[in-house]
Backbone:
């Protein structure tokens, strides 16, 4: 009996779509209280996932997806820095 390996699926906090974890970027809330882009997906802290598209980042900003995920308010500067990191990452 062959058990198929389960592919981890996560929900985008921007568009709400379920996608393969590998196709998404992880936004991390560190134990120190920082909100950063987790490129490795392995860092310690609470993670929320976004599709790798700027639209989803903007949707998450508009519908407060990260706020809901982290159960706290996210300052605009955090979204700005995430957008900047995103732009650098995806040229």
Residues:
């Amino acid at each position: 009996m062959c058990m198929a390996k389960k592919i981890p699926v996560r929900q985008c906090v921007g568009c709400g779509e379920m996608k393969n974890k590998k196709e998404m970027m992880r936004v991390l809330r560190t134990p120190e209280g920082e909100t950063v882009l987790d490129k490795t997906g392995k860092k310690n802290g609470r993670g929320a996932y976004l599709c790798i598209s700027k639209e989803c980042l903007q949707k998450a900003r508009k519908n407060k997806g990260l706020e809901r995920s982290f159960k706290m308010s996210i300052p605009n500067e955090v979204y700005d820095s995430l957008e900047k990191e995103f732009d650098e990452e995806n040229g």
